[in-house]
Amino acid sequence: MKLPPFQALLDEHSTDLYRFCLATAGWGEADDCFQETWIAALRAYPKLRRADNLRAWLFRIAQNKAIDLHRSRGRRPVPVEAVAEMTAAEPEAPVFDGQPELWAALRDLPPKQRTAVYCRTVLGMPYDELAELLESSEDAARHNVFEGLKKLREEWSA
Amino acid sequence: MNEHIETALRKAAATLPSAAPLDLQRVAGAGLLDVAYATVDSPLGPLVVATTPRGLVRLAYTGLRDEGQVVEDLAGRLSPRILEAPERLDDVRRELDEYFEGRRVDFEVPIDWSLTRGFTGKVLRQTARIGYGKTSTYAEVAGRAGSPRAVRAAGNALGSNPIPVVVPCHRVLRSGGALGGYTGGVERKEFLLRLEGVLA
User: Fold this and answer.
1) Do B12 and A3 touch (CB under 8 A)?
2) Is the Cβ–Cβ distance between B95 and B107 less than 8 Å?
3) Is the pLDDT of residue A156 over 60?
4) What is this model's ipTM?
5) Which residues contact B185 (CB under 8 A, 6 or more apart)?
6) Which of A94-103, B13-22, B77-86, B137-146 has the least mean pLDDT?
C-alpha cells in the first residue's frame, strides 16, 4: 500500500480541517479537536488499507472527535462554585463577516447534517465522498445536506 | 438578507481564523513521528535532511531530485509518518553550518543506517571512519569492508550513500589519484575536498 507522506495531508487539509473543527466542535474545543484528529490519524495511518479517499477518512475522525469532546465535556462533573467561572472562561465566538448567527445556527444542527452542510457547501465535496465520510448511502448524504440547509435557512431568516 | 445561504456559508467560512500548527512535540512524545525532515541552505545548494528517533538517516542534495521526491521516497522506504519538523534537526543543522564554515571536523549526530544493506552498509561504515582532510581509495574501502576485489561494487555502494557529507564518501578517490564520481556531481566533491584542504 503506497501512502503519500503524511506531511502532504497536513499541507493539503489543515485549513479546511480546522474550519471544520470550528464548525463541529465549536470555538472552545476546536483546537483540541484539531490536534487530536491529527494524532489519531497519525496513529492509524500506516495501517490504512486504502488511500483513495483520505479527506473523507480524516474528516470522519474529526467528526467523531468532536462528538467525543462534546460528550466528555457534558459528563465531566463540575463543582457548583466552578460553574460560573467555567462559563466565563468559555471563549466567545468572534464576530466575523457579520454572520455569527449563521455560524451558530450551523453549530446547532445535528452532527450528520452539520458535517454534510459544511463539507458540501463550503468544500464542494462530491456526494460519494460525503457518503463515505458519513458512512451512509449517497441518498442519505443528499438528504442530510437538504435537511440541514433547510433548517439553516429557517433559522437564518427568522 | 437576500444572499443565498450557501454563498453566505462559504463567505463566513473563508473569514475563519487559520489553524494553529500541529503540536509536533506532542506527536513526537506519542511516538508518532517516525521521520522528521527539514531543508538546510548550504554552499552546495539546499539540502534535505531527515532523521528518525535513532539518528540521521538521509541527507539529499536537491537539484537532481526535488524535496518532494526525496520525501516521497522516504515515506515509501521508511514510514509514511513523515513530517516537516525542523526543530527535530537542530543539532544536524548546526553541525552542518559549522562544517561548511570550516569550524567542525567531526560530526557527532548519531547515524541511522536503515537505508543501507549488506555490502553497501559495510562499505559506508568503513567510509565513515575516514577522518577530515584524509582520503582513501575504492580498493581500500572494499578491502576494509571484507572484499578487496569488489572495487566496482564499493564504487556503487558509495554512489548510493544515503547520507553524503556526514558519511564522507567524498574522501574516497580512485587509486591513481583521480577524483572518481560523486552522488551530487563531481563539482561538489571538489568543493568538499577543497574545503578540507585536500585539494588546493
Assistant:
1) no
2) yes
3) yes
4) 0.90
5) B61
6) A94-103
- Within 10 angstroms of residue B131's Cβ, the number of other Cβ atoms is 12
Q: For residues B198 and B200, give the distance between their C-alpha atoms in angstroms, rounded to a whole number.
A: 7
- Does residue B112 surpass a pLDDT of 70? yes
Q: What is the pTM of this model?
A: 0.88
Nearest to B117 by CA among B152, B150, B162, B81: B162
| Angle of CA points A104, A154, A127, to nearest 5° | 80
Q: Which of B169, B173, B192, B193 is catalytic?
A: B169
Q: Is B169 a catalytic residue?
A: yes
Longest dimension (CA), chain B: 84
Question: Are A17 and B72 within 8 A, CB to CB?
Answer: no
Phi-psi region of A138 (alpha: psi -120 to 50; beta: other; left: phi over 0): alpha
Residue B52: phi, psi to the nearest 5? -110, 175
